[in-house]
Amino acid sequence: MGFDYRMRWSSLVVFMILGFSRVILINGEFPGPQIESITNENLIVSVFNSLDEPFLISWNGIQQRRNSWQDGVYGTNCPIPPGQNFTYILQVKDQIGSYFYFPSLGFHKSAGGYGGFKILSRSVIPVPFPPPAADYTILAGDWYNKNHSDLKAIADGGNDLPFPDGLLINGRGPNGYTFTVDQGKTYRFRISNVGLATSINFRIEGHKMLLVEVEGSHTLQNTYSALDIHIGQSYSVLLTADLAPKDYYIVVSTRFTSQVLTTTAILHYSNSQTSVSGPPPGGPTTEIDWSLEQARSIRWNLTASGPRPNPQGSYHYGMINTTRTIRLANSAQMINGKKRYAINSVSFIPADTPLKLADYYEIPGVFSLGSIPNNPTGGGAYLQTSVMAADFRAYVEIVLENQEDTVQSYHIDGYNFFVVGMDGGQWSPASRLTYNLRDAVWRCTTQVLKIT
Ligand SMILES: *[C@@H]1O[C@H](CO)[C@@H](O)[C@H](O)[C@H]1NC(C)=O
Ligand SMILES: *[C@@H]1O[C@H](CO)[C@@H](O)[C@H](O)[C@H]1NC(C)=O
Ligand SMILES: *[C@@H]1O[C@H](CO)[C@@H](O)[C@H](O)[C@H]1NC(C)=O
Ligand SMILES: *[C@@H]1O[C@H](CO)[C@@H](O)[C@H](O)[C@H]1NC(C)=O
After folding, report:
1. Would you indicate the residue range of the signal peptide (predicted)?
2. How many whole angstroms from 48 Cα to the centroid of ligand 1?
3. Is the pLDDT of residue 343 over 70?
């Protein structure tokens, strides 16, 4: 059975959110409509670009095993020209969980254009928790008063991006969004960080959150009173409305920033007579260690099923021998007077011919394999249409090293990976002794904190 989602990109509309800014709407909505699907469904999504510039949508965490050329990333997928349309045909094969989609070109994400994407389990697959009374999506992240073309101009002018002007929850400012719950019932919240630059901390005043799922993995069900969520990450928690009937703050604040931005939404008990008052509860004050410890506590539930009936633990990922090690380090540098971000000193530039087409039709001169080093070079950054080759069925160890003083967030588009270790200091082969080869979560995006 297939679902047919027809999405139409509205024209740019002037909105007033935390200042004057242009917002990208989808079907007239910001955030865009949520895509709700069930494991293995085929989705047909037609995207009509009504903007006056090229547009491309990326399906964060949706694995496109068959159609990787349409994953919505520059280099594999052509942007949709102004006034044109493109139909994506995706199968959410062997996937469950919480994700979102976002525009991946030209800082468009800073102007909206994103929406939730959830994949429910097939009815025959046991889910390791009872069905919640409702399933709420929270898309939270930083917001800039400057529009996306001004942000691009800042980077092109050789400068760092400015600090964000605020945070939004589902496109609204402080207390602009209300989630209603009945006392005594349990709800699922799927929270994603849809921002451009800052990690966030998420908490619900007075309540504990039971973590149940991270980007398609069922986790050990630990309770948390606050969760760090980095750019591009998605978490599912269960919340039981078991406190006195009143309204409570849902709080999002920036993490690892010298100035802390905070915004709130409302958790409204349906029998509440009391609205929120006073300052919202503060976030964690300890920085790195708290966050690191929390990241390590997020584990796979080995006995729970994922998208398939067999338990997640039956994959035994830690028993597969790796065939190759790649070390990647980031740097922010100036190239031709512009601020550019590089991996192993290479800042990617798209080729005129999409790489997938060049590959398929064997067009020479578009890219060359191995045009990005396997290890950090420490050298100056340069522009390159960089492509790294990998062997079919290779099992690769990737070490991500953060050489900047801000948190980095890495998304491996179209693939999931196991985050087996996270620590400070310099990685060495001896670090392998500390790897979690048993119950690390399988996810699509990982943070790399700045740990000295
Ligand atoms: C979508 O684009 C195709 C060309 O790629 C065009 O033939 C078709 O008319 C467009 N559909 C709509 C509804 O604009
Ligand atoms: C962004 O704002 C600038 C003014 O600061 C304006 O010139 C430009 O047209 C705007 N761009 C878009 C895409 O709205
Ligand atoms: C793991 O999943 C099983 C379902 O297979 C569930 O009964 C159990 O409570 C879960 N364990 C934890 C620690 O979350
Ligand atoms: C991994 O390598 C070891 C030693 O090289 C070998 O004995 C073992 O069979 C390999 N395991 C797998 C799953 O290939």
Report:
1. 1-28
2. 9
3. yes
